[in-house]
Specification:
With 241 residues, the chain is of the alpha/beta class. The chain has 7 helices and 10 strands.
């Protein structure tokens, strides 16, 4: 595990984009595992800039997203498909037919999860997986639990996650209570993992992830067991390390 300290969010975004850009240049037809939320937005902005400058080509890239809210249509402005289109896909030359997000409108959870696992297997697995870090240590929507999840699964969101996400909705009642998420085992099978962490409010959980025991009660702690993990964190997030 490598920890790369950034001075601030802008520096964090630049350093994370450097790592993703290097992966794309080394393997132009790679599969990127992508994340949503506030943490990677700056990284996507950096990648868009580099594309516009002619330094990056997305035309052969495949992407698979970590998760999607159950019950939200792709054109819902709070869906993660909408997020990815708005924050990255609409601004680069990626083929959207090669971008995958769990089907939030599939009511049969078992079917939705099985089909998404098949997609990940059919694209040959993930070369680089981008992750954020939740306040309770979740990665994707893999919440604290008694055991680590394996494949894509349907999860009940915790109150802390609902609380963190309600700012994006008109009211807390509008926040979906379930989501489809890539499993811990699938994440751990990625060849390389990149985690972006920003802010003083993430300092305590980052310390647990890096220095604490490996436990499903802190899902991201499992990353200690992966052979190629880079954590890019700003100075505030690193303050307790």
């Amino acid at each position: 595990m490598v920890i790369c300290k950034a001075s601030d969010y802008k520096d964090l975004s630049r350093k994370a984009a450097n790592i993703i850009a290097a992966q794309m240049i080394l393997k132009p037809d790679c599969t990127l595992g992508l994340a949503t939320g506030s943490s990677p937005v700056g990284t996507y902005e950096q990648l868009i800039e580099r594309f516009k400058d002619g330094d990056l080509d997305f035309s052969r890239i495949t992407s698979v997203n970590l998760d999607e809210y159950k019950g939200l249509a792709p054109d819902n402005d709070q869906s993660y498909r909408y997020f990815m289109n708005t924050n990255l896909f609409n601004h680069v030359n990626i083929d959207k037919a090669h971008t995958f997000v769990p089907d939030g409108l599939e009511p049969d959870a078992e079917k939705a999860c099985r089909e998404y696992d098949e997609i990940i297997e059919n694209v040959g697995g993930i070369d680089l997986q981008l992750l954020g870090l939740g306040h309770n240590g979740h990665i994707g929507f893999n919440e604290p639990a008694d055991s680590f999840s394996k494949g894509t699964n349907c999860v009940d969101l915790t109150e802390s996650t609902i609380e963190a996400n309600k700012r994006f909705f008109e009211s807390e009642a509008d926040v979906p209570r379930q989501a489809y998420t890539m499993g811990i085992r699938t994440i751990m099978l990625a060849k390389k993992i990149l985690v972006v962490v920003s802010g003083k409010d993430k300092a305590e959980i980052l310390k647990k992830v890096v220095c604490g025991p490996v436990t499903p009660e802190v899902p991201a702690s499992v990353l200690q067991l992966h052979p190629d993990v880079t954590i890019v964190a700003d100075s505030e997030a690193c303050s307790l390390l």
